[in-house]
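Supplementary notes for students who missed Thursday's class. We covered one full example, reproduced here. Read the sequence, then the structure, then the short commentary at the end.
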Amino acid sequence: MCEYDLEILFEDDNLIAINKPSGLLVHPSWIAPRSTPNLTSMLKEYLQGTAYTIHRLDRPTSGVIVFGKNKETAQRMNHMFAEREVQKTYLCMARGYTPEGDIIDYPLKEKLDKLADKMANPDKPPQDAVSEYRRLGTVELPIPVGKYPVARYSLVEVKPKTGRKHQIRRHMKHISHPLVGDTKHGDGRHNKAFREHFDLDRLLLMATELSFRHPESGELLTLQAPVDSQVDELFSQFGWSGLYPV
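Structure (token representation):
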């Protein structure tokens, strides 16, 4: 039995949007056992047909993700993403007090998978990558981490203008404010502190909103994904209620 439920945010004859939980794969993966739940298979069962991929979210990232119900709509949406006609908004928690807001314009070298991308050119130049962010809140916790007696964090809204792999995680690390719970690009000492003090073992990166013109009707759609109850409870402790979708 699958441990995950489908939380449908929007559905019509052409599109379906889901609030993906943290930890759920979007597709089957060679690095996970064949029985590992994945969103594509769950949607196939729900729709009794194919769900066409439009974009992706990393396994540890939660939030809104859209699929096409037919190939033509999916292709139109793929083109819209490629032409940057889709506005994406993320919520994350970063180490330290970030600036109030800024634009990170820092090219990123393509991350290649050792098996899936073994034929790809490893010497491709970095690709342009731009992320705009603003700080929504801060908190200082009486938790010693490393040589510091307290730990400081920021609640940050990020609007990526490009779609590179792990872009937000890598960009926030680049400005020395890695995300809490990021096991690839984060700070293990802070991740450990959140596991021990808050029983939190997930990446604090949530895709909270997608806004775009419907590829068939032209209607402006703004799809919001609420944070899960664990994140909401944690952020409420930090005095951040009302700063994000619930």
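Commentary. The chain is about 20% helix and 30% strand. The beta strands are 8-11, 15-20, 52-53, 62-68, 87-95, 101-105, 130-141, 151-160, 205-213, 220-224. If anything here is unclear, bring it to office hours.
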